[in-house]
Write a structure and sequence with these properties.
560 residues; alpha+beta; five-stranded mixed β-sheet; four-stranded antiparallel β-sheet; disordered N terminus; PaRep2b domain-containing protein
């Protein structure tokens, strides 16, 4: 092939400049709905549950297996889009993967159930199962393919096209234009049914207005790290050759991990169990799969705090979070639970078994009374209808089930993470108060405010709904959680002066407010050195909160 012809061929298959489907077109599709999805709802539930009541298989088989598979995947995508709009990109890919796997296994169970049915029905289900097979790498490359490459994807499954749709919400190539057009016209089922190039020919012109460009490469947000470290990180990013976006970001993540890992290894451990438990009740979480304590954050200061208090075994960068000032790496640190943490959990469970659940029940009842009395804002009126005794009974039942369940203690901790992360650490703080260990109580409450609080003209602690990740059989609402916290704060004379009921895009939550005088009484002077982080830059949240606490304590000395 002549050089010029070679260049033309390369140009034809060059990666498309990344684009993504605009969020608003997805929101509008969800609001309007899609007529064909209504037809498949009963079949979708039948596949998930195995209950064929009301399902007319003869009518379904007449539509064809690929069409039915497209309807099932589109129905799953509806749920995935809701997750995306509610929780962002992080959760949606995993959610859809699990949902598609459930649908495929449901079809396999249905196939066994219909073993004696006519061959055309069994064949129909077999073909639908094939369309639910998922090669995630192929789905990703489809999402990022340019127009000339789309013809190479004629054999992709419906599930792979569905996963490609999700990738185009973050970044994609020519297929993103087809996806945007299908969302706009309310024809996602048809997009999933036909070949990608056919979909592009039909929908790209409609979707052109509903995509936006994704900038190649990564520009780190200013103030991510201290000046010297910030410069080293930015130089590492600048040295990475600008190739395909996905590959580029992977190289950048590796480079940044190498630099940050060096710094993290220098961090000295500080033993402070109460402060660690305060962060477990807020920012740190339990990873059920690896049975580890984990933090996922874009704040270097929080990474430093995690390593100071808990140590670390694994550190990696999962991706980048886009902000209006640049990208912040999403850092993940994991470590196995220490024997001290497990021992403290064991002590609390022993106290609960010996009658402590009755005491907690009374704390929750009193906390709920305080919540009804002091809460103001959106949703506060609804609290007046909630009986304190009912909330207390719910908490009592949940704790009894938790402590009576068999199995190893670590299985309990990781199996029912809401109880382990929020309820039990606050009960620990209550026990420390009963034992007269006021330093431990102050360390704990200070950590919770640094974790989930705001510090300014007043000090607030936010208590919200549980994430999907923590969903389990013992899940309580934010009302139960707040009632427990308030009951304990009231019992130890640290109750807030005001409570605000909040409702927003991320859900519902309460904010407990202390004035500056009250804040001085709850902050721990002894642990302020913990929050004087060395890695976080001027925009680091932990650094800002540390400075805020110092200002509050300083103003108290001036006026006192």
């Amino acid at each position: 092939m002549a050089p010029l012809a070679t260049d033309i061929a390369k140009a034809r298959v060059a990666p498309a400049r990344p684009v993504r489907v605009r969020r608003e077109v997805v929101e509008e599709w969800l609001r309007r709905g899609e007529p064909l999805l209504g037809q498949v709802k009963r079949l979708y539930e039948a596949v998930r549950t195995g209950d064929l009541k009301g399902v007319k298989l003869d009518e379904d088989t007449a539509l064809g297996s690929k069409h039915i598979a497209a309807m099932l995947v589109a129905h799953a995508l509806k749920g995935a889009v809701e997750v995306y709009l509610r929780e962002g990109w992080r959760e949606v890919e995993r959610w859809l993967r699990l949902e598609l796997d459930d649908v495929r296994r449901g079809l396999e169970r249905l196939r066994k159930k219909l073993e004696g049915s006519p061959s055309n029905i069994r064949q129909f289900i077999d073909e639908a199962i094939k369309q639910l097979e998922l090669d995630e790498e192929r789905a990703k490359t489809l999402a990022n393919a340019n127009r000339d490459e789309l013809s190479q994807y004629g054999g992709v499954t419906v599930a792979e096209k569905g996963m490609a749709v999700i990738h185009t919400l973050m970044r994609g190539g020519a297929y993103a234009k087809a996806v945007a057009g299908a969302f706009y016209k309310g024809e996602l089922v048809h997009l999933l049914r036909v070949a990608p190039y056919t979909a592009y020919s039909r929908y790209a012109s409609y979707g052109q207005s509903y995509i936006e460009k994704v900038k190649l490469g990564v520009k780190l947000a200013p103030g991510l790290a201290v000046e010297d470290l910030q410069r080293r990180l930015e130089e590492a990013v600048a040295r990475v050759e600008q190739e395909v976006l996905e590959k580029t970001n992977k190289i950048i993540r590796i480079k940044l991990k190498e630099i940050l890992n060096e710094e993290i290894e220098k961090i000295e451990r500080i033993y402070n169990l109460p402060a660690l438990m305060g962060f477990i009740a807020t920012d740190f979480s339990f990873d059920k799969d690896s049975k580890s304590l984990r933090v996922t954050t874009t704040q270097l200061g929080l990474v430093e705090l995690f390593v100071k208090l808990a140590g670390f075994k694994h550190f990696y960068i999962g991706g980048f979070i886009h902000t209006d000032k640049g990208e912040r790496p999403q850092m993940v640190v994991k470590v196995k639970l220490s024997s001290e943490i497990v021992s403290e959990y064991s002590r609390v469970l022993r106290w609960l078994r010996e009658g402590g659940t009755e005491e907690v029940k009374e704390l929750v009842r009193n906390g709920m009374k305080l919540l009804r009395e002091k809460a103001s804002g959106r949703g506060a009126d609804e609290l007046r209808k909630v009986e304190p005794s009912e909330v207390a009974a719910d908490m009592y039942t949940s704790l009894k089930r938790y402590i009576e369940e068999g199995g190893a203690l670590e299985d309990k901790i990781f199996g029912h993470r809401l109880v382990s992360r929020l309820f039990l650490p606050w009960i620990m703080a209550y026990l420390w108060a009963k034992e007269g260990n006021n330093r431990a109580v102050a360390d704990f409450i200070t950590a919770t405010i640094v974790g989930d609080g705001t510090i300014g003209n007043d000090v607030r602690l936010a208590i919200g709904e549980s994430s999907t990740e923590e969903g389990d059989a013992l899940r309580m609402s934010h009302i139960h959680k707040t009632a427990l916290v308030l009951g304990i704060l009231q019992a130890i004379n640290k109750a807030p002066v005001a409570i605000y009921a909040k409702v927003g895009k991320t859900g519902k939550w309460f904010e407990l407010k202390w004035d500056l005088e009250g804040a001085r009484e709850i902050f721990s002077n002894a642990t302020l050195h913990l929050y004087s982080t060395k890695l976080g830059g001027s925009e680091d949240e932990i650094k800002k909160k540390h400075l805020g606490i110092l200002e509050i304590l300083k103003s108290g000395h001036k006026t006192g």
